[in-house]
UniProtKB/TrEMBL annotation:
Coiled coil: none annotated. CDD domains: AdoMet_MTases. Residues 203-216 are annotated as: SAM motif III. The chain crosses the membrane at residues 306-329. The lineage of its organism: Eukaryota, Viridiplantae, Streptophyta, Embryophyta, Tracheophyta. Residues 68-277 form the MPBQ/MBSQ family SAM-binding methyltransferase profile domain. This is Methyltransferase type 11. Keywords: Membrane, Methyltransferase, S-adenosyl-L-methionine, Transferase, Transmembrane, Transmembrane helix.
Length: 340
């Protein structure tokens, strides 16, 4: 398992581009072209002498060069209608493993069995299985927009006492100041408006509660970037931080997550790239004000356009099923200690 922690405060200077400092990792190349040292630490030097100024809004809107066919509620719904059949057999063993999940959940600080936890985009309950190791299942709610994914979660014995809710991450059916922990793993990439989802995370947490959002990162390799843009949203690390900051979170941390056979290479944008956490510093709603929701899953769509998007998006997703296998093979072939 490869992981490293970045601190949101350091990133703030990066995000705003007002500091001469940048982020870098001792022993690694931010662009993933070199083999990084494990247990990377934060240092303050520029990335190739440049200050990165992320354009957060670009992630929510979709420029024609980044169509992100499945970053829509209806498409994601149907994508999971089919993927749910094989999800536990295809995704978890090879792409989002128990090791990765447990590493990613560690910053969520699930320190008390009585904690109230919501798992948003909980799907087949793979991440929830990691949560109930630390928290009583009766205190955990799994929310997902896909009844097909939830049906799989309901079959799992350790989750029998959890609550199951069909709902939208951008409009959570929980009261304000409700939960001790908000967890969402591998779901943000499908939300049409990720900032809204993170604002909701803030709202439903109690004062001092912690949000933990786990998701992919944007590839730097040109081919992987192409397929990522066709499939869904692969946010940049700075964008995660910026969404958390804008929602009002404090003590923001970002931990990099990846399969151990990648040897730290990040150029393809991992299926699970990072785990971002933040603490709610005041009770009540987020200070961020947003307009109406961009998409509603119940709205009718043009069936032809919808089908085309679904097929193209699913084809691009297939690339990301193959990349980890390619990387695994490389890891087997290239001698240990050499870059892959
Ligand atoms: C890659 S799966 C992750 C499932 C689970 N968290 C895990 O770790 O295996 C993504 C899940 O997000 C759900 N999802 C996508 N968009 C959503 C939305 N707007 N609201 C709620 N769930 C959503 C999908 O239905 C799917 O089950």
């Amino acid at each position: 398992m490869t992981s490293s922690i970045l601190n949101g405060t350091e990133n703030l200077t990066l995000v705003r581009g007002i500091s001469p400092k940048g982020l870098a990792f001792v022993g690694s190349d931010f662009h993933g072209k070199k083999f990084p040292k494990m247990g990377m630490v934060l240092s303050s030097r520029n990335i190739r002498g440049k200050t990165i100024a992320p354009k957060c809004s670009l992630s929510a809107s979709r420029p024609s060069s980044q169509p992100r066919f499945i970053q829509h509620k209806k498409e994601a719904f149907w994508f999971y209608r089919f993927l749910s059949i094989v999800y536990d057999h295809v995704i978890n063993p090879g792409h989002w493993t128990e090791d990765m999940r447990d590493e990613a959940l560690e910053p969520a600080d699930l320190s008390d069995r009585r904690m109230i936890v919501v798992d948003v985009g909980g799907g087949t309950g793979f991440t929830t299985l990691g949560i109930v190791k630390h928290v009583d299942a009766k205190n955990v709610t799994i929310l997902d927009q896909s009844p097909h994914q939830l049906a799989k979660a309901k079959e799992k014995e350790p989750l029998k006492e959890c609550k199951f809710i069909e709902g939208d991450a951008e409009d959570l059916p929980f009261p304000t100041d409700y939960a001790d922990r908000y967890v969402s793993a591998g779901s943000i990439e499908y939300w049409p408006d990720p900032q809204r989802g993170i604002k909701e995370a803030y709202r439903v947490l109690k004062l001092g509660g912690k949000a933990c959002v786990i998701g992919p990162v944007y590839p730097t390799d040109w081919l992987s970037r192409f397929f990522a843009d066709v499939w869904m949203l692969f946010p940049k690390e700075e964008e995660y931080i910026e969404w958390f900051q804008k929602a009002g979170f404090k003590d923001i941390q970002l931990k990099r997550i990846g399969p151990k056979w990648y040897r730290g290479v990040r150029r393809h944008g991992l299926i699970m790239g990072c785990s971002v956490t933040g603490v709610k510093p005041a009770s009540g709603d987020s200070p961020l004000k947003l307009g109406p929701k961009e998409e509603d899953v119940s709205k009718p769509v043009n069936p032809f356009v919808f089908l085309l998007r679904l097929v193209l998006g699913a084809m691009a997703a297939t690339y990301f099923v193959l990349v980890p296998i390619y990387m695994w093979l490389k890891d087997q072939i290239v001698p240990k200690g050499r870059p892959i």
